[in-house]
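Folds vary. Our protein:
___
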Amino acid sequence: MRLTILGGGGFRVPLVYGALLTDHAEGRVTRVVLHDLDAGRLDAVTRVLAEQAAGVPDAPEVTATTDLDEALRGADFVFSAIRVGGLEGRADDERVALAEGVLGQETVGAGGIAYGLRTVPVAVDIARRVARLAPDAWVINFTNPAGLVTEAMSRHLGDRVIGICDSPVGLGRRIARVLGVKNPGEAWIDYVGLNHLGWVRGLRVAGRDELPRLLADPELLGSFEEGKLFGTDWLRSLGAIPNEYLHYYYFNREAVRAYQEAERTRGAFLRDQQAGFYDRMRDPDAPALEVWDRTRAEREATYMSENRETAGAGERDADDLSGGYEKVALALMRAIARDERTTLILNVRNQHTLSVLDADAVVEVPCLVDANGAHPVAVAPLPDHATGLVCSVKAVEREVLAAAESGSRTTAVKAFALHPLVDSVGVARRLVEGYTSVHPGLAYLTQ
């Protein structure tokens, strides 16, 4: 089976390949094709993968190419993990937004809109090429903003594109761990929302909802990441456990201030850190896997550090530093390729899952996965406070898609202005001016 990874020179690709190396079952991936526009990054990552595969019998063959069409032809699965504008673009997204006093985070608020406006045209081109060159392939989208990009691609690929994120999985795992669930895989997680905008409303083990027990115990509730981030009183008020990214909504002023006061933004940190990794890989004698692993550990330990500092949450627990998005992707791929039926929280077209959204809106909900793809499971209606946020952010995503399709600068302003974390039409106009001045990828916004 052939797997193509777009953004194959990306820093997290070795996580995917490492997971593939543990799979020895029939129908496994036997060939991995890495595609990237940067040949130097491809070379660096290929070296890491070669060291990972050393001594592993029947390790998947790895090839690399800068030709997109060549990479797509013959693919059974396509992992899309592109970053349009690179980490320099992410750092610019943060800087322009913070200068206006609003959040510039990669997927949330003004930064997420800017990233989406750059990424959607490229993602749509990829979707069209997949439909032409590999019409039977399944596309698993890692690219952020994951829900928005998946919805853009779904307009050309239908249900053959599925978005993934490890945040809901990590949240469910933490809740199960503090509740003493021995096998988290046996728990049913009642999770619903959009990507980076969802809530766990229940966690059922053997048919019993264990979440009320957690909410009733302040000590237990405050013992894990989300309890520390949001505070036990707020979680009990909500009657649910929010995805960690909702900290940007519930504590927006504090988050913006922390980012403004930080020595470097997250994007700038990752830009500099990863530049160091790729520079080191220019040395043919550098121990590639060792250098990559050390860089990865630092990256994960500093994840959402400004939010944790604002909340007084302290350092991340060691159990939360193992990542997870690659495990979700591989579980999804195996379920489809082998008809190994499973349940995963995924970004898929709504169909009739959430009544407040139309059928084509991409949502993040539990799905039953089999050889025919991912099928969203019916969920209870959202509470009013969640409905407001979900509908508002989905409306913004639709404006981003409309701007990307039409090239309308006016529609782009509308997308920024309607976002709940951008508090002024004037600010929205200045954001569009700022972003178009620093991002060549937004030159299409001319109308």
